[in-house]
């Protein structure tokens, strides 16, 4: 970690302690600022944005919770560590719970101080990663609301555009792959090859078997349409899902799509799926949503690439994230460009008409999978988001990936 990312602010009335501690931390690689004045400390905080602030309870006329409030008001991201002597230890319990990260009894050995600082830095990273996610979450919710307002204000133009997209989508789906398009082509070929004899038509057996296969596929396609219709009408009861049951829901969903994973030899990496508190949802609906997002990731990511499943938890929600690499599209839109992040949930809307017949057996096709996922999540009081991110975690450096997020509400505690 570079020195610029290890900024520490010390606030203490004891000048000798300040100098000794500042010099010690600087030798350990910290960029350290020190002052005896809360006013100067607030100026230093505004200018340098230290990650961790160590401060004494008594600073002139201002003390205790007032000091904490002033520091929080200046920068809510900083991690606060209270410095007390043996006589002041009991005063820590008088401070508002959660308003500071840790308390250190001074004087203390350098290695003990460093241990507290490292814990505070880890907390800073976790805390501000969550802050950043919640800000992005609010931005995406606002984008969805703006999209709904735009649709309401432009009803006629949107209906015309949507109707054209729907007709184009259905036409392409019917004509591509192993469905009606294949049947029509095979019938035209058969018409050229068949011979009429004594009131009967003689046709090559191989061609006739091909027609039977196409007819069978059309039946499956019609059954798929019925599955889509039923899925759009499903009503899910919202129940409490215990923490112990949550990982099983995700794992079962992964196992259920194994045949689709094998098509392009994808790898699935699952992080820690344990959660601390119950969530509100429906096990069947969550399983369906995860399956659909996985199949979507399989279809639109390169052969042999890795799908990552991660879990984040905040005080109010649990997030399940699925990350996949982006498959380059020669005849359509690649990835999910900005501006398309809300349109993709519209029924029968597709960013491209590239058809992969290896996924013919999926339950929901024709651009309906994300519509069904969004409907299920909304019934549970949750949300779904798909958007592009820049992933810096790999050895190859920065890469564009798709992040699919299921945001699930935690259950309210029983009174």
TrEMBL record:
UniProt-listed PROSITE patterns: RESPONSE_REGULATORY
Domain of life: Bacteria
Entry-linked InterPro entries: CheY-like_superfamily, HATPase_C_sf, HATPase_dom, Sig_transdc_resp-reg_receiver
Occurrences of domain Response regulatory (ranges): 7-121
GO biological process: phosphorelay signal transduction system
CDD domains: HATPase
Name of the protein this chain belongs to: Response regulator
Organism annotation: Leptonema illini
């Amino acid at each position: 970690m570079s020195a610029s990312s290890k900024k520490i602010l010390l606030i203490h009335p004891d000048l000798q302690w300040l100098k000794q501690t500042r010099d010690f931390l600087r030798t350990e690689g910290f960029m350290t600022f020190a002052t005896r004045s809360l006013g100067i400390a607030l100026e230093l905080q505004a200018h340098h944005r230290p990650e961790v602030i160590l401060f004494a309870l008594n600073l002139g006329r201002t003390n205790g919770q007032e000091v904490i409030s002033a520091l929080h008001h200046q920068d809510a991201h900083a991690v606060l560590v209270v410095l007390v002597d043996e006589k002041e230890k009991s005063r820590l319990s008088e401070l508002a719970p959660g308003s500071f990260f840790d308390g250190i009894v001074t004087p203390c050995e350098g290695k003990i101080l460093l241990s507290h600082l490292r814990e505070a830095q880890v907390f800073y990273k976790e805390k501000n990663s969550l802050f950043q996610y919640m800000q992005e979450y609010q931005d995406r919710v606002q984008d969805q609301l703006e999209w709904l307002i735009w649709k309401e204000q432009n009803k006629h133009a949107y209906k015309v555009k949507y109707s054209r997209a729907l007709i184009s989508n259905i036409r392409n789906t019917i004509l591509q792959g192993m469905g009606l398009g294949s049947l029509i082509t095979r019938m035209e070929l058969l018409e050229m090859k068949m011979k009429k004899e004594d009131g009967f038509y003689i046709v090559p057996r191989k061609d006739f078997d091909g027609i039977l296969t196409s007819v069978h596929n059309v039946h499956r396609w019609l059954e798929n349409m019925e599955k889509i219709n039923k899925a759009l009408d499903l009503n899910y009861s919202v129940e409490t899902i215990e923490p112990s049951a949550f990982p099983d829901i995700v794992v079962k969903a992964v196992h259920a799509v194994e045949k689709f994973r094998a098509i392009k030899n994808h790898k699935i990496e699952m992080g820690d799926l344990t959660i601390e508190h119950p969530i509100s949802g429906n096990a069947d609906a969550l399983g369906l949503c995860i399956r659909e997002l996985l199949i979507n990731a399989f279809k639109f990511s390169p052969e042999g690439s890795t799908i990552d499943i991660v879990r984040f938890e905040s005080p109010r929600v649990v997030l399940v994230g699925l990350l996949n690499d982006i498959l380059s599209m020669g005849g359509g839109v690649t990835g999910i460009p900005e501006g398309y992040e809300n349109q993709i949930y519209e029924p029968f809307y597709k960013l491209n008409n590239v058809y992969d017949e290896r996924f013919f057996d999926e339950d929901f096709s024709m651009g309906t999978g994300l519509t069904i996922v969004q409907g299920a999540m909304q019934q549970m009081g949750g949300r779904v988001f798909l958007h592009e991110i820049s992933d810096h975690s790999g050895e190859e450096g920065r890469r564009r990936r798709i992040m699919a997020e299921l945001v699930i509400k935690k259950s309210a505690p029983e009174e």
